[in-house]
Amino acid sequence: MSETTPYDADRARFTRQALARLVLCDHAADAADGAAGLVATGNDPDTGPGGRVSQAFQLVELAERALVSAVVYERERGSSWTEIGQYLGIGPAEAEQRFATNLDDWNTAFEVPYRLDDTGRKRIPRLPTAAYDPAWACDRLDTWARNRLVLVNDKRPVSSGLVKAVPKEELPPVTPVTP
Hints:
Layout: H1 8-12, H2 16-36, H3 51-76, H4 81-88, H5 92-111, E1 114-116, E2 123-125, H6 129-132, H7 134-148
Antiparallel strand pairs: 1-2
């Protein structure tokens, strides 16, 4: 049986594909912000030995997180392992094996939305924050994109392109099939 979350209604407005895209947007924004921290040179004297290496390594970790999110998104939108593997320079079986745990975690989070922390007392959402609370993520990412992307005139540059779920009341009636 599925547990409920405080954000179920907000999440129901989006398809799983849209939620996966929101997670990818969130992780891409984090990676972009991480890269931006390496651009300015004015604070270099304040950075200890190895500090810029630390920042660059963190950027690699953020990029890896974005890659995992991109694979989840591509699978949600129907991309094959052959297509994904082609862009990674690996075979389809290797691509599937590499990301199987990430996809399992993504799928499980929709059925079992929480895990218990180490104390066994606090529930921790399994979905990434952007998918768990998509209304917050849309607001944050729309603002992020408006502030950083040149020549973007859309007031909702992230959320306007997401695939929305069709509300149940707008679904066409199901006609029983008779043999």
